[in-house]
């Protein structure tokens, strides 16, 4: 019982900083969105229309972070310090490679993305400018995600929290100055975001190099194909899952944007508003992944079982409470982001609908975290591909283009997708556990 309590306490200890980080980050993002939102519906649309593409870019870098966290946390469990340092050196190559690649592609495609997303002509110009500016510091954005993952893999969730907290405060201060003080509007918001990425990436790199467990000699930091293959084995299915999901979000947002500026603004702001209520799930997911990896590295089935049970119960319980709160604060929350009563009323209606599905979202997220820690990213990929395209996209297409229904029915499709993912991932997790496929050598 004492060991079990200690494991639960460690899980809570690791998850609190990630929860606080996401709470503070989301609250500050709320301020950012609200400042743009009060410039008008077209300004909101200019920033929102490329959001899903931003998620896609971020998800590709995040997939590499997931692979590093899984492998490195398992090495921590084994006490293999040489392997930890070797993977840390490869993280530098990953940051440079993915940063340059995604940055270049984003800049080339920036003028076309708003058009592909179905944005109104008056929105396309500002949207292109916004996406171009935030794509310039892509290497720094990659550094924040990938170096941050290596730090968390060593069971340090506090330091990345402080880095991201300071970065978000800088973002809000710059937003106030550039959007309103200088009067740059959407362009000012983009510059503030770009500067924030530069600070966060630089600070995370400094922490990464100063951390004893991760420190390596530059002379010995050669490209290691063996380590890269291990990373690729986990990262590629994760990239596939994120690509599948984010491309789905792109199609999903594109279909909603075609329903009109007011509806799209209400949808985009409601999605943004809901992110605060995802925090318990995502906060626990990172801690769960790290502790799952350490448990596997130690080959400790009892510890892993405790981590699984505790993380699922905590996440689903917290997300249920989160959903109750969301239901009752939906309209005041929407009014924070927009001065339009019509947009706020429609968005609040969507938030009340989705509030009932928050526990399922929590179950989905924590199951993903367990699979990521195990390195079994194929499970997440197959579930994501089936549910996103077979449920959300298919039925949203029918709702919008065949049956010509409203935003409420579109959100029903989104909720059905989340419930399906949660159910399938939970079933997969039970099968993996009972067959003993969580152990090293049985990955994927």
Describe this structure in words.
With 444 residues, the chain is mostly helical. Helices cover 84% and strands 0% of the residues. It is globular, with a radius of gyration of 21 Å.
What are the SSEs and their pairings?
Elements lengths: L1 H36 L3 H8 L2 H28 L2 H29 L3 H4 L4 H15 L2 H16 L4 H24 L4 H25 L14 H33 L3 H14 L4 H19 L3 H37 L3 H15 L2 H17 L2 H26 L4 H28 L10
Instruction: Supply the number of structural domains.
Output: 1
Categorize the overall geometry: globular
| Helix-strand makeup class | mainly alpha
Tell me the span between the first and last alpha carbons: 32 Å
Q: Total number of β-strand segments? A: 0
Quaternary organisation of the protein chains: single chain
Explain briefly what this protein structure is:
The protein has 444 residues and is mainly α.
List keywords for this structure.
single chain, 444 residues, mainly alpha, 84% helix, 0% strand
